[in-house]
Each structure stands twice: as C-alpha cells, then as structure tokens.
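Before going further, learn to read the protein records used in this course. The integers have meaning only within a learned vocabulary of local backbone shapes. To see the layout at work, look at the sequence and tokens printed below.
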Amino acid sequence: MALLQIRVDDDLACRAREVARGMGLELSSAVRLFLRQMVAENGLPFRPSCDPFYSQSNMDALKHSLAP
C-alpha cells in the first residue's frame, strides 16, 4: 500500500475534514474514494470550471469602471 503525503492550506484541510465527517467519512477515506473514481472515469470525477465573473473581459471592464 502506498503512502501519499500532500500539503494543503490548514483551512482547506479543516473544512474538507468537516465535509467528510458530515458524510460519515474520514478525510483519508474521502481521498481514497476520489482516487478510485478518478481511475474508474480515467479522469477527474468532476468537470473543472471557472467562475465566468473572473473572466479577463469582466476584469478589464471592472478596471475601466473604477478608473478616475
């Protein structure tokens, strides 16, 4: 069995642990589920996306609207 060590922000780890506990899981079990699903789907088990609010065109418009 392999041992994985990762570094994550303390707040992220705490919040993820609470979510896992809310589902009756330890965080390590949730990570194992994620890895198994990733292998089963041969990719990420979710579709990564970005909030369109932060698109370059919106950021440019925001800067323009704040300019004196």
